[in-house]
Amino acid sequence: MPDHRITPELLGAVTCARAAPAARRCSLTARLTARLRAHRYDRMLAVGVSADPGSALAAHRTRLTSTTERQAVASALLRAVREARDPDVHSWRIPVHIVNVIAAADLIDQVRRRLQSPRPVGVLGMARLRLVLSDGAGPLYRFGRGDLTGRLGAALAEL
């Protein structure tokens, strides 16, 4: 009886198939790896590491510029501003740094509008924004350190 199993090595060797010139779909393994290592790949992309076609990093890069991801980041930024203006003491979320967020509210609004615009966004900027949002010890969150305005400005410049 023939063996019809697909080994992980074979599955990982499958590269992005061209569905259309502008759109590529990476292998399931690459996409799954990209999800599991998202924070690591965000850090890599934020400093300009290039992605080989078909790699998990390429799959992550593609996801970062998707409309869904752009909307998710824009919503998270809007939520941070709303929470800074009207803190919810009963929330299970990490509380935002009210002073930093209020000081950067105009810049956050610029970033949010840029994410919601139809123009394409840069991967470097998206990776930097995701790092700001995911760093619980960063300047966006209470007791965090760093320059929120500087980080958001750098991300906006790369969008």
UniProtKB/TrEMBL annotation:
Q: Which domain of life is it from?
A: Bacteria
Protein's name in the database? Uncharacterized protein
Taxonomic source organism: Mycolicibacterium aurum (Mycobacterium aurum)
